[in-house]
Write a structure and sequence with these properties.
Length: 430
Amino acid sequence: MDRIRIVGGRKLEGTIPISGAKNAALPLMIASMLTADRLTLKNVPNLADVNLLARILRNHGVDLAVDGKRPGGSAHLGETFHLTARDIVDTTAPYEMVSRMRASFWVLGPLIARMGVAKVSLPGGCAIGTRPVDLHLQGLKALGAEIDIDRGYVLARAPKGLHGARIIFPKVSVGATHNVLLAAALAKGETVIENAAREPEVGDVADCLVKMGVRIGGIGTSTLRIQGRDRLEGAVHTVLPDRIEAGTFAMATAATGGDVTLAGARGHDLSTALDAIRRVGAEVTESDDAIRVVRNGAGLEPISIETQPFPGFPTDLQAQLMALMTRARGTSVIRETIFENRFMHVQELARLGADIQLHGDTATIKGVKALQGAPVMATDLRASVSLVIAALTAEGETTINRVYHLDRGFERLEEKLSRCGADIERLTAS
Ligand code: EPZ
């Protein structure tokens, strides 16, 4: 198994190109199942999760062609995918696939909407929380799907097709919003989703559906109005930049000190996190197509934050912020309100010398003068990258094991950081 070796203590300086967003690329790829025409997606990041979803979609009959890189073309522009679901040949998403990547559960909505039938495995447990799918099922039932659960599978049927409905989600869910939005695109009449997730990735999927011929009002708000169509067209869409990747590198720069420009990043998708970084003592400037983070010598101030759905502070940056606060001048408090078990990084950060107490959903982080390098274990994706941030500031060498977690969601992480001066390398298992 690959490991990553980091020797801490170097400032980060330079420019980091921000990749396309994983959490938009995945539902956008799934949107291709809604039409027999070709959906072209540009700026798709080359990630393990994207490649796994490509395999899953191929099983359903989606034809995927990836453009070759042009000689001399920038390696940083992501890939161009052409997806064509002329015929859906299989309406089953098996446990072996869905359990490896939860977002593949989102094929449920498009399968029922287009084929009138679907058999999709329940995703099962997850390292960061129980993560039920009741809201997905509630929304799809409101659209007219008949749903049974049998031996770990969701069996869904809509013999007369789906119809529009008013759905009020009792809780904000990114995945349930995606699933219902995708299904509503092919439902008869208008669907209104209240308390919809406002995450920019939901907006990106809605923008793509509009290009495919769906009329959608309220994009970017918590009320989405979707006028379903009998048939959707093909489209060309560019995946939006990854705000979590940008926020991660912003926090890494605030942690190490230095001066880094995040090329392509959109500040307005990340304002709560950027405000937090400013409050802890880094300078952040935003322009149309970049964010610049500078910290020169000043100590880090402690902070209190709780995670919230967008536009609040994202749970996907909670672990990274905690790594940053391990060396603040005082005590920080971070409350995780989205997932009940998203603290696996705490014990690993403690191995590097961090002082963190956990009480229920709240972590109290007492800043220490220095962290010391040590062998640590990656657990989930964002927990793993928090260890990278901590290791970049630690004295001496850290090795991070099980880096396949990082490969699920960070494209060329070592290359991007080492170009900015980090001492980081991948040790490939022979
Ligand atoms: C998406 O997961 C993201 N995944 C997650 O990113 C992200 O952490 C999360 O949204 C929150 O922002 C992708 O986009 C692929 P939710 P999702 O449904 O959709 C509860 C990463 O690291 N809930 O918004 O699965 C749920 O348990 C990942 O890239 C229900 O109770 O998250 C949680 O407490 C990990 N019933 C809360 O809602 C449901 O039916 C929010 O979950 C659905 C969710």
